[in-house]
Amino acid sequence: MPPNTTRLVVATGNPHKVDEIRAVLDPLGLETTSLSDAGGPFPEPEENGTTFLENATIKAVAYAKATGLHCLADDSGLEIDALNGAPGVISSHYDADGGPDNRPRAERDLANTARVLRELEGVEAEKRTARFVCQLVVSSPDGEITHSTTGTFEGRIGVPPRVPSGDHGFGYDPIFLVAPDFSATSAELPPDEKAARSHRGRALLNLVDLLRSSPIG
C-alpha cells in the first residue's frame, strides 16, 4: 500500500457492493476493503435508528471502532408519499413490520412488494410517487463522522398488471417505475444504466465531490 493511502472499510457483507464502491473511490487514493479483509467477522450493531442517517451512522461508527479504520456505511430504502414515507427504514422487513424475518431473500422481497401493492390499491397512478434513498456515512476510527451524503432515485409505484415487471435488480425494483417518463421499472433497466442512475450511484458521486475537497486521513 502506498505510504499516503488510507484504508477505508465498507460495512457490508456483499462483495459486489465492495467492488462497486472500490471502483469509484480507490482512484481518489483510498484502499477500499471489506469487513472480512479488515479482520472480521465483527458483531453486528443494532440498527435501531428512525432515519436512514441514524442507521448509517450506527453502522459506520460501530465498525470503525471495531476495525480501527475509517469506515463507510450506508442505509437505503424506499419512501412512498401516499404511505407517509413507508416503508422507509424497515424496507427490507416491511412485511414483518420491521421485525425479524428469516424467510429467504427472494420470498421476503415478494411479500414486501405484495404488501406495498395492497396498501396502494385504489390510489391513482399520479399519486403513487416514491423514491429510493441512500444515505452514506464515513466515520473515523474514534467515532467522528467525517463525511455524509445522500442520493435519491425518483419514480412512482406502478399499477398492476403493469407491475411487477423486469428481471434485473431485487426488492422493490420490479414495481418501481423510473422518473421522469415512468416507461420502465427499475428492474427493466440494464444493470449499468441502473447503477449510474440509482440512489447509491448518486450518493457515491456526491461523496466523491466531498472527498476531493476534504480527503480522509
Features:
217 residues, 6 strands
Would you list the SSEs in sequence order as H and E? EHEHEHEEEHH
Given helix and strand content, the structural type is alpha/beta
Largest sheet: 6 strands, mixed
Widest sheet, order of strands: 2-1-3-4-5-6
Regions with pLDDT < 50 over 5+ consecutive residues?
A: none
How far is the first residue's CA from the last residue's CA? Answer: 15 Å
Strand-residue fraction? Answer: 15-25%
Radius of gyration: 18 Å
Residue share in helices?
25-40%
Average of the residue pLDDT scores: 94
The rough form would be described as globular
**Number of E strands:** 6
Q: Helical element count?
A: 5
